[in-house]
Design a protein that fits this description.
heterodimer, A: about 500 residues, B: about 350 residues, 2 strands
Chain lengths: ~500, ~350
C-alpha cells in the first residue's frame, strides 16, 4: 500500500444504491502521484459506479472523496474536473458536427480580442496535444466519421487539455490495435513522469501487468484486494476477480468440420477492401485478425449486406446472395453481431425482453399481434441459456452492464437459429468471467454445426478460439494460418503487411 | 514507428487524409449556401425574363422589405433550432409586440422611438423566457411548449385587441419611416435586418456561448459531460429568439401601419422553412444564420415572383412546400455521402 506521499485522489468507504440494487458497498482506494493503478472486476462488480462517484457524475450515499488528503464534495462532473480529475469513458461522447479542435476546447475556447474565440490558437493547441499523443489527426476536421479508435484519442486529448492530476481511463484500449495501445502506454508513462496518477480500468490482464504498478480488485460492489502487480500472477488476479479458478480462458472444443456454409468470392468495395475470398465450414471458427482499420468489419458488413459491395459475391450453402440486402442474408441464415453494440446491436430505449426477441417477431406474431407470453418465454429461455445477469426482463436494456448487453445481442441473433454467425469483437469491453462464457458459447455453437466468423483484435482470443486465422491488412487478406501454425508473431507479421504467409 | 507500420505509404498519407476530410466538409457547406444563392439568382433571372419590371428598383426594394422581417425572425429561430429545439410561437409574439408598439405610439405619440423598440423586445424576451423555462426546467419538449404558446399568445392578442386595430394615421411619421424609408437607397428595414443577422451570425461563430449552442444540439449528453450549462444556454436561446420576434413585431407595425390581432399569422412556418432551406438542420448541431437569412430572402422572393407572374396563391404555397422538401432531401443526401466519405478516409488513414 502506498504510504508516504499524500494520495492525489482517495475514496473512503463509498456506498451507492439504486433502489434495491447495491451497486457499491465499499469503495475504498487511493492513487498517489506517479502511480498507475488498475481497477479490475467482473461485470456488475461496481467499477462503473465507483468511477462515477470519483467523477462527480453520481453522489455517493455514504463515504468520502479526498483530494490531496482533504475531503471534497462533487455536485457535478464540472466540480470533479476542476479538482483535476479527468475521466475517459469507454464510449466516446463527442460532438459529431464540430471539429476535433472544438471538441477538445468546448466550453474553454481560447479567447482573443473582445472575448472572441481565437480560432488559430484553438487549432494550434489541439494540434499540439495530438502531436504529443503521437497521433496524426487533422484538428480541423469534423469528428463525424472518425473511427472509434480515433474518437478515443480525441477524448484523451480532451482530458490532457485539462491538465488533469488524475486520469481515470475506462477500458481505453478496448478498440485499439497493438501499435495504438503501445502509443497509449507511451502517453501513460509521460503522465506518470509528470507526477499524475492514473486509474486504469481494464479486462486485459497482459496490459495490467505491462503498465500498472498496483491493482485494486472489486467483487460484488466491494473492493476485495489492493496489491502491487509485481507480487501477483495472472492466475492470482483472475482468482481474486472471479472467486474461483478459471482453467482455460478460451475453451474451444473440437467439433466435426462439415461442408462450407459461407463462401466469399473476390468481394470488393472501392477504397475499403479488395479481392477478399474465403470460406467458413460448418463447425469451424474462423478468426479474422488484423489491425484496427484493416477493413475486417467492413468485409463483415458487406457480407451481411449492410454495405453494397462493388465486386464479387457471397454464397450461403451454395446459393448466391443478392448484393446489399440484409434481409436476404438473414433469410439465408446469416446472423451478424456488430462491433458497436450500443449503436448497432441494441435499441437502447427498449426493454431486455424486446431486444432479445426483436429478430424473431415473425415467429411470435399471430395476425399481426405479438404474443406477449411467447415473447416473454423466449426471452426467459435465452436469458437462462446465456446466464444473463439482470433485474427484470422489462427493464431498459441500457441498465445492463456491457457484458450482459452483449449477451442480449447474441441472444437476439441466436434465436434466429442461424447457419452462419458473424461476430465482430465478441468480447470487447467484457470482463474475464463473461468472456469465458461467451467463448464457451461460441464453441458450443460451432459444435452444433454453425459456421462462425469471428473478428477479433485480441490475439490471445484469436489464438485460443480459431480453427483458422485469416489476417487482413489494408483491405486485403494477407495470410491464412491454421490453428497449429498460428502464433502471435506470424499473425502480427501478416497484419502489418510485412510478410505474405500462405497456409 | 508505429504509424509507419500501419500505412505502407507512411506518414505522408495521414495528415492529408484528415485535411481532405475537412476540405470536403468545407466545400459541401459552401456548396450548400452557394446553392441557395444560386437558386435565388436563377429565380430572379427567370422571373425578370418573363416580367422585366421584376428587377426594377421599386420591385427589388419590395423584395428586400418582404424578406427583412422574416430574416430577423429566422436569425432567432436558428439559435433555437441549433440546440435541437424549435420555437413555433414567434408569430404570436410578433403580433403581441406589434400591437403593443402600435397602441403605445398611438396613445403617446411623443414617446421616444427607441423606448418602443426596447419595450417590444422586452415583451418578446419575456415570452421567450416563458418558453425557455418550460423547456429547460419543465423538461417539456419544445415542440409541445411552443405549440401551446403559439395559441396562448395569439389568444392573448385577440383578448387585448378586443376587435380593435391600429391605424397608420395615428402613428408618428418618424416611426413609419423606419418601416418604409430608405437610407442611401437601401430600405432601412433591410439594413436593420442585415445588422441583426451579422450580430447573431458572429455570436454563433466566434463566441463561446454561441458555440455551446451547437454543442448542445450536436450531442446533449456530451455537452452535459463537458460541463456546458445546457439549461442556461437553451433558456438564453429562447429569450433571444423571443426578443428578436418582439423586434420583428415593432418593425411590422412600422412597415404596415395597420395592425390587428392577426398580425404575422402563419409566419412561424415560413420562418422555420427559411432556416431549414438555409441549411439549419432540424436535428440541431449545424447550420448558420447567414444561410437562414438567405433562405428567408429566397422564400420571400418566391412569393413575390409568383405574384408578379400572376400565379395562383395555391401554387405559391405548393412551391414553398416543394422547396422545403427538396432542401431537406438534399441535405440528407449530402449528409449521407459526407458520412461515407469521412468514414472511408478515416479507415484508410488508419491502414
Amino acid at each position: 500500500m502506498s504510504d508516504s506521499p499524500t494520495p492525489l485522489l482517495a475514496l473512503d468507504q463509498a456506498e451507492k444504491s439504486y433502489g434495491a440494487v447495491r451497486a457499491l458497498r465499499n469503495g475504498t482506494l487511493s492513487i498517489g502521484p506517479g502511480e498507475v493503478r488498475a481497477l479490475m472486476g467482473e461485470n456488475g462488480a461496481g467499477k462503473s459506479t465507483l468511477v462515477k462517484v470519483l467523477g462527480g457524475v453520481v453522489q455517493p450515499d455514504a463515504g468520502t472523496v479526498l483530494i490531496d488528503g482533504a475531503p471534497v464534495e462533487f455536485h457535478n462532473p464540472t466540480d470533479a474536473r476542476d479538482a483535476g480529475i479527468a475521466i475517459i469513458y469507454q464510449e466516446p461522447t463527442l460532438f459529431p458536427d464540430l471539429s476535433v479542435a472544438e471538441n477538445i476546447a468546448m466550453g474553454r475556447h481560447p479567447l482573443g480580442a473582445a472575448r472572441r474565440i481565437d480560432k488559430r490558437k484553438m487549432h494550434e493547441e489541439a494540434a499540439e496535444l495530438l502531436k504529443r499523443l503521437g497521433v496524426r489527426l487533422d484538428a480541423e476536421r469534423p469528428v463525424r466519421g472518425l473511427s472509434i479508435a480515433d474518437q478515443q484519442v480525441v477524448e484523451i486529448a480532451k482530458a490532457l487539455s485539462f491538465d488533469a492530476k488524475v486520469l481515470i481511463m475506462d477500458e481505453p484500449t478496448a478498440a485499439l490495435s497493438g501499435p495504438e495501445v503501445a502509443r497509449l502506454f507511451g502517453v501513460v508513462n509521460t503522465l506518470k513522469e509528470r507526477g499524475a496518477g492514473i486509474l486504469f480500468i481494464s479486462h486485459r490482464l497482459e496490459e495490467v501487468f505491462a503498465i500498472c504498478d498496483t491493482v485494486t480488485v472489486m467483487r460484488d460492489g466491494a473492493v476485495v484486494s489492493d496489491e502491487k502487480t509485481a507480487n501477483l500472477t495472472e492466475d492470482d488476479l483472475v482468482r481474486r476477480m472471479v472467486g474461483r479458478d478459471l482453467d482455460a480462458l478460451f475453451p474451444k472444443t473440437d467439433a466435426t468440420i462439415g461442408a462450407a456454409l459461407l463462401n466469399v468470392q473476390r468481394l470488393t468495395r472501392e477504397g475499403v477492401f479488395t479481392d477478399v475470398s474465403f470460406e467458413v465450414k460448418a463447425g469451424e471458427i474462423v478468426a479474422l485478425a488484423g489491425l484496427v482499420g484493416a477493413g475486417r468489419s467492413e468485409v463483415a458488413r458487406a457480407i451481411f449486406g449492410i454495405d453494397k459491395a462493388d465486386g464479387g459475391h457471397v454464397e450461403v450453402e451454395g446459393k448466391r446472395l443478392p448484393n446489399g440486402k440484409p434481409t436476404a442474408a438473414m433469410a439465408a441464415g446469416i446472423a451478424f453481431v456488430p462491433e458497436d453494440r450500443r449503436q448497432q446491436g441494441l435499441v437502447m430505449e427498449l426493454s431486455i425482453k424486446r431486444n432479445a426477441t426483436i429478430t424473431s417477431l415473425a415467429r411470435l406474431t399471430k395476425l399481426g399481434l405479438i404474443a406477449g407470453k411467447a415473447e416473454r418465454l423466449m426471452a426467459e429461455e435465452w436469458a437462462q441459456r446465456l446466464q444473463l445477469k439482470f433485474h427484470s426482463l422489462n427493464d431498459n436494456v441500457g441498465t445492463l452492464s456491457g457484458g450482459n448487453q452483449q449477451k442480449v445481442v447474441l441472444a437476439k441473433w441466436l434465436s434466429t437459429e442461424p447457419k452462419v454467425l458473424i461476430v465482430d469483437e465478441p468480447t470487447r469491453g467484457i470482463d474475464v468471467g463473461t468472456k469465458s462464457e461467451v467463448h464457451r458459447l461460441l464453441s458450443d455453437l460451432a459444435g452444433q454445426g454453425i459456421a462462425v466468423l469471428m473478428i477479433s483484435s485480441e490475439l490471445p482470443e484469436v489464438l485460443g478460439m480459431a480453427d483458422r486465422v485469416l489476417v487482413m491488412h489494408e483491405g486485403r487478406i494477407t495470410g491464412e494460418i491454421s490453428r497449429a501454425e498460428a502464433d502471435e508473431e506470424r499473425i502480427m507479421r501478416a497484419a502489418t503487411g510485412r510478410a505474405e504467409v500462405a497456409a | 514507428m508505429s504509424a509507419q507500420t500501419e500505412t505502407a505509404s507512411g506518414g505522408a498519407v495521414a495528415p492529408e487524409a484528415g485535411a481532405e476530410a475537412r476540405r470536403r466538409t468545407d466545400v459541401i457547406f459552401r456548396v450548400r449556401e452557394l446553392g441557395i444563392v444560386g437558386a435565388l439568382g436563377l429565380l430572379i433571372l427567370v422571373t425578370a425574363l418573363i416580367e422585366p419590371r421584376f428587377v426594377e428598383a421599386d420591385s427589388l426594394r419590395n423584395l428586400a422589405l418582404n424578406a427583412a422581417i422574416f430574416a430577423i425572425l429566422a436569425a432567432g429561430q436558428t439559435l433555437v433550432l441549433v440546440t435541437r429545439n424549435v420555437d413555433l410561437s414567434v408569430s404570436s409574439v410578433l403580433a403581441l409586440s406589434a400591437f403593443m408598439a402600435g397602441t403605445l405610439l398611438s396613445d403617446h405619440p411623443s414617446l421616444p422611438i427607441p423606448i418602443v423598440f426596447l419595450l417590444g423586445m422586452g415583451l418578446g424576451a419575456a415570452a421567450g423566457a416563458l418558453n425557455g423555462f418550460l423547456v429547460t426546467f419543465g423538461r417539456v419538449p419544445a415542440l409541445v411548449v411552443t405549440l401551446g404558446t403559439l395559441y396562448a399568445f395569439r389568444g392573448l392578442a385577440f383578448l387585448w385587441t378586443d376587435g380593435r386595430q391600429v391605424n397608420a394615421e395615428t402613428l408618428p411619421d418618424s416611426f413609419l419611416n423606419i418601416g418604409t424609408g430608405t437610407i442611401l437607397g437601401i430600405p432601412t428595414l433591410a439594413l436593420i435586418a442585415l445588422v441583426v443577422v451579422l450580430i447573431v451570425g458572429q455570436y454563433l461563430r466566434d463566441f463561446r456561448s454561441g458555440r455551446e449552442l451547437y454543442a448542445i444540439g450536436s450531442s446533449p449528453e456530451a455537452a452535459r459531460l463537458a460541463g456546458v450549462r445546457t439549461d442556461r444556454r437553451v433558456l438564453s436561446a429562447f429569450v433571444i429568439a423571443g426578443a428578436l420576434a418582439g423586434l420583428g413585431g415593432v418593425l411590422f407595425t412600422a412597415r404596415f401601419g395597420t395592425v390587428d390581432a392577426t398580425a404575422g399569422n402563419g409566419y412561424e412556418f415560413t420562418v422555420i422553412a427559411a432556416a431549414v432551406v438555409g441549411g439549419v438542420t432540424i436535428n440541431g448541431g449545424s447550420g448558420s444564420v447567414y444561410g437562414a437569412a438567405i433562405g428567408a430572402v429566397l422564400l420571400g422572393t418566391i412569393t413575390s415572383s409568383l405574384i408578379v407572374l400572376k400565379v395562383d396563391s395555391f401554387w405559391q404555397q405548393a412551391a414553398v412546400g416543394a422547396l422545403l422538401i427538396t432542401a431537406i432531401a438534399f441535405d440528407r443526401w449530402i449528409g449521407l455521402r459526407l458520412d461515407a466519405a469521412l468514414r472511408q478516409r478515416s479507415a484508410r488513414r488508419a491502414g
